[in-house]
Design goal:
The protein has helices at 27-37, 53-65, 87-107, 120-131, and strands at residues 43-47, 69-71, 110-113, 136-138. With 147 residues, the protein is an alpha/beta fold.
Amino acid sequence: MLWGWGSSRPGPHHREEPVSYSQPFTPEGKLADAKKLLSLPRIVVICGSTRFMTEMNEADLWETKAGKIVVKPGIDMKSPHELWSDPVEAAALKVRLDDLHRAKIRLADEVLVVGDYIGDSTRAEIAYARSLGKPVRFTHPEVDPDA
C-alpha cells in the first residue's frame, strides 16, 4: 500500500491529521464548488402557475436587472399549440416538463414563486425546493403554504 508520494510507510510516531472539507463530496457540493470557481452569479428559478406567464416575465426582468441568472418555465401548456394538441402527447410532455423544472430547481440557488395562487404543481415544487434547502421567496407571501 502506498502512503503518499514516498515509497515508505509512516513511522511509528506518525499521526494522521483530520481533513476538513468546505463542501461534502456530493453532487450538490460539487455543483456549489463549480459555481464558485466559475464566479457565477446567483441563479434564481421562477415557479408558479403558467397563468402568470406575464408576471413571470416581469419577475425575470427585475431579477436579471439585479444581476441574477434566471430560469423559468419555457412552455405554457394552457395556451394552444400544435406541440401539445394531442392529449396523449400533452400528458407525456407534462411529465417531461415537470422533470425538467425539478432539474432547474436543483440547479438554482433560490426559488421565486410568482402569483397569488398556488396549485398542486407549484405546491410540490415549493416542497421539493425546501427539501433541498433552497430559499423560497414569494411575490405574494400570503400564499406560502408553510406561512
